[in-house]
Amino acid sequence: MxxxxxxTAKLRIVPANEASWDDLRAVVGAARCFDAxxxxxxxxxxxxxxxxxxxxxxxRLRTQAxxxxxxxxxxxxxxxxxxxxxxxxxxxxxxxxxIRLTRPVTWAGRNEDKTDDGVWAVTCVLTRTxxxxxxxxxxxxxxxxxxxxxxxxxxxxxxxxxxxxxxxxTWGELFVGSRNAFAAAGFREVTRPTKRxxxxxxxx
Length: 204
What we know:
The chain has 204 residues and is of the alpha+beta class. It contains 5 helices and 7 strands.
């Protein structure tokens, strides 16, 4: 993803429990970030996530999202609609829900409580292929930060990729979002654990 000005089309963004499973699967089920359908389980399984079958991963996401239960106070992300068409997804939950975020690379140069439920994390931002490059990632990340704040988060983190003008990054690598998209939503860079990955954070 390159640094772009968010498009003029405005998404209607709802918690995933207010969306149907068919709508969520229409977005997430088309994404092959790791040559397989992750269904946003990569950061929730310590190792060997491929050993868990695709349908089981889908079942876990459906359960975590609580799709179709608008009165639920539990969900794991947001679905973005263009008119009535589901086009985008953003995973947003307390950071403690993502066991793989305890890995050393995430914490290089940092000293804070890894068990703090008040810090939420954006781990995945997807847009369906035919709707990409319209700035929807920017809208989803901004909405995710507000969603977390309204539910008591005192901070939100993202783990974006550094993009360079003219340099192509495959979409599969950009499932975490770009540094530019997080910065546009008010996130600041905290650390840069690798040359291409940054920890971005917004505190409320």
